[in-house]
Specification:
By secondary structure, this protein is mostly helical. The protein is built from eleven helices and no strands. The chain is elongated, with a radius of gyration of 45 Å.
Length: 255
């Protein structure tokens, strides 16, 4: 097989020489260029024919070598680190909070949640229990408002005991007092929700930097308290509607 390849290569070189000679006769002006071209072709063909270590398989592998490289678009990109969301960061902040502050804050939410839950389970609205919830909410709002005084009065505190810091802390207690003046529990609950929102705005946005765990705890507590008060107001509206329907039915039957 190898002698046959050699003869083919030598025969090819002879044909190349004959072809270049013919071109040289036809084109006399470019004699130097065609001579250099014929010499290069003859040298390449002879080297290819005389190299015993160069097999057709190796030549084929050499030619196909660039095609085996994978394009950059198909390479796997390293996975990017996903940033934790707001909920995940909030949960992590709650885990970092001191245990007494966390447990006492959660325990303070029990009177808010238990009142509408108990009335919903029994299917009966109790005005005295609802008023007790409103009274507890007013005390809680007053405590949240006075907390700013305790934060601004120490000498090493980043907050200053100026008019803005101390006057803003009196707004939630005044709204809580106004809530107790209403005879309707629904109006009192709405006023307390407004006071809770203002106190939360002070603690999260206007106050000097509190710890992140405290801000998250304040947001969670405010949401739970507001929803509990609104749930009590909704149960009162449902009970009044049912009572009016029952009275109307009784009057219809009496007539």
């Amino acid at each position: 097989m190898f002698p046959f390849l050699q003869r083919c290569c030598f025969h090819t070189s002879f044909k190349v020489q004959k072809l270049t000679g013919t071109r040289l006769l036809l084109c006399g002006r470019n004699k130097t260029t065609w001579c250099s071209l014929s010499f290069c072709l003859q040298t390449d063909v002879c080297l290819f024919s005389r190299s015993p270590s160069l097999s057709p398989a190796s030549v084929y592998a050499t030619k196909l070598q660039p095609f085996h490289t994978s394009p950059p678009c198909f390479k796997k990109k390293p996975p990017k680190d996903k940033k934790p969301g707001v909920l995940e960061r909030s949960v992590e902040s709650l885990k970092e909070s001191p245990k007494p502050a966390l447990y006492l804050s959660l325990a303070g939410l029990i009177p808010f949640v238990s009142v509408p839950l108990a009335m919903a389970i029994q299917g009966t609205y109790y005005p005295e229990v609802a008023f007790a919830q409103v009274l507890y909410g007013a005390v809680t709002v007053s405590f949240l408002g006075g907390m700013r005084w305790g934060f601004a009065l120490p000498e090493n505190s980043p907050a200053k005991p100026d008019w803005l810091s101390l006057a803003n802390s009196t707004v939630p207690p005044l709204l809580a007092w106004q809530a107790l003046l209403f005879k309707d529990v629904t109006q009192s609950a709405v006023m307390l929700v407004l006071a809770l929102g203002i106190a939360l705005h002070y603690d999260v946005a206007l106050l000097p930097p509190y710890p992140r765990w405290f801000k998250v705890l304040r947001v969670v507590g405010t949401v739970v308290m507001a929803l509990s008060l609104l749930a009590t107001a909704a149960l009162k509206a449902i009970s009044e509607e049912q009572l009016s329907d029952s009275r109307q039915k009784w009057q219809n039957t009496k007539e």
